[in-house]
Amino acid sequence: MQVVWDNIGLLLIGLRSTLILSAVTVVSGSAVGLLGGVGLLFGPLPVRGLLRAYVDIVRGLPLLVLIFFIFYGLPAIGLDVRGFEAGALALSLFAGAHVSEIVRGGINAVPKGQIDAAKALGLTFWPRLAWVVFPQAAPSMLPPWINVVVEMVKGTSLVVLVSVNDLLFAATKVAERTANPMPLYLAAAALYFVVNFAISRSGAWLERRLSYG
Amino acid sequence: MYDLDWGVVLTHRDAFLSGLWLALRLAAWGLGFGSLIGLALAFARVSGSRPVSALAAAYVEALRNVPLLLLLFMIYFGLPIFAVKTFPPEIAGKLILDGSTSAIVGLALYAGAYLGEVFRGGILAVGHSYREAARSLGLTGWGVARYVTLPIMLRTVFPSLGNTFISLFKDTSLASAIAVPELTFATRELSSDTFRVIEAWAAGGALYLATSFAIALILRAMERRIRWSV
Predict the structure, then answer these.
(1) Which residues of B touch A168 (CB under 8 A)?
(2) Which domain range does residue A115 map to?
(3) Is A150 in Cβ contact with B2 (below 8 Å)?
(4) Measured between alpha carbons, how far is B185 from B9 in angstroms, rounded to an integer?
(5) Which of A1, A56, A68 to mutate to test the interface with B (most CBs of B within 10 A)?
(6) Contacts of A196 in chain B (CB under 8 A)
(7) Tens digit of pLDDT per residue, chain A (213 long)?
(8) Hey, what CATH topology would domain B27-180 get?
(9) Which chain A residues touch B217 with a CB distance below 8 Å?
(10) In Å, what is the CA distance from B100 to each residue of B2, B51, B75, B127?
């Protein structure tokens, strides 16, 4: 255990990158997903087709393949990306595809009468979506969205393979140097667990709050 | 500008196909052993014994909140050194696993946690009356589980098992990080050996897509064909 305390600073630096990458991914992925979900339902036919292709292709690929594709592919066509940017882009696209499906399903589940009523009140498309449909869709979208957030925090660990200094990278490097990997991997696992457990618990709490309203 | 040359993919198709075949085998073994772990966890959860149920719940929570890649590193890099330091050589030797075995162990432990929840749902969905009927026919606890709960439960969880297989198939890509020559590994090798980056990853990605799509189609067909009544 001593080896963990001696190197806790390095692990925390790694954890910080993991958290930053997770936050970037969740925010941009959710933004993409919101637009994607709305586009899947209400976009003109070509937009719907493109979004459907994006969502199905990205959801059918392993996340690691997407990361490698972007990390090796963009430089090949002359765009220079570092591991962090490639990872953030791939993770955001991945999260975006999953959130798109969640948003589509959530909006679809709102009773049609609500939309008709909003139309009868004279609300146009975006206000209708923002003030009538979305608030009612949110409670059903929350649990799968929290799932995606946890999956993304876990998914950030893959950027270790494109040399980003995240939590798993820090644990691996210290393990190589001290030739005593198990305590470090267990410490990293504990840190991942704490983060994800906190996320899913606050998700469950939020869910209870929303269901009362 | 980047000129595409697809010929290089065709000349390396053997590496792609053997990688794909290995990925499918890893996923199948992972699903098999994962199902056994999941079954044990599910019956532990509904056993009625508090400590047993809490232990199973802790396993599920722990595994679901930790990245699979970390688990694979633990088994492949961590376990051998840990075993050599802790156990006598004859036991330690058995705990030094090669890449493919590590991947299967990791996938099974990981899938087990998810399947534990799936199976638990399946068990709870088996009506009380079935168990009571089995009891009144004289079956013991084990007999009820083996001959009544399990067969009915397997029918309801079949779609989830199929989806887990597809996820596992995609998760096998992580095995490339512990030097298992599966599809992602083959793709990465082609990409770095020939610098045909776009072609290699497009082909590798297309194989993943096509295969998971094909598996999904087969599963849907099976679900329709086997119209189980409970």
Answers:
(1) 67, 69-70, 73
(2) 2-212
(3) no
(4) 14
(5) A68
(6) 64-66
(7) 788 888 899 999 999 999 999 999 999 999 999 999 999 999 999 999 999 999 999 999 999 999 999 999 998 888 889 999 999 999 999 999 999 999 999 999 999 999 999 999 999 999 999 999 999 999 899 999 999 999 999 999 999 999 899 999 999 999 888 888 999 999 999 999 999 999 999 999 998 888 765
(8) MetI-like fold (1.10.3720)
(9) none
(10) 36, 34, 11, 40
In this complex, the residue of B66, B170, B212 whose CB is nearest that of residue A193 is B66
- With b for 16 or more beta-carbon neighbours within 10 A and e for fewer, the B159-196 pattern comes to ebbbebbbbbbbbbbbbbbbebbbbbbbbbbbbeeeeb
Considering chain B, what is the average pLDDT of its residues?
Answer: 91
Domain tally, chain A = 1
Chain A nearest C-alpha distance from B35 (Å): 21
pTM: 0.91
Alpha-carbon torsion (A84, B208, A172, B116), positive or negative: positive
CATH code at position A89 = 1.10.3720.10
Identify the pLDDT of residue B168.
96
What was the pLDDT predicted at A125? 93
Successive 10-residue mean pLDDT values, chain B, 230 residues: 79 91 97 96 90 95 95 94 88 89 97 95 88 89 87 87 95 95 93 88 95 93 71
Among A146, A149, A157, the strongest candidate for a mutation testing the B interface, having the largest count of B CBs within 10 A, is A157
User: How many CB atoms are located within 10 Å of the residue B6 CB?
Assistant: 11
Among positive and negative, which fits the CA dihedral B223, B224, B225, B227?
Answer: positive
Domain positions in chain B: 27-180
CB contact under 8 A, B67 and A78: no
| Chain A interface disruption, residue of B185, B197, B211, most A CBs within 10 A | B197
Task: Please judge whether A157 and B78 are an interchain contact, meaning their C-beta atoms are less than 8 angstroms apart.
Answer: no
CB contacts, 8 Å: B82 with chain A: 181-182
Distance between CA atoms of residues B90 and B7, nearest Å: 50
Across the interface, whether the CB atoms of B81 and A180 are under 8 A apart is answered yes
Residues 6+ apart with CB under 8 A from B11: none
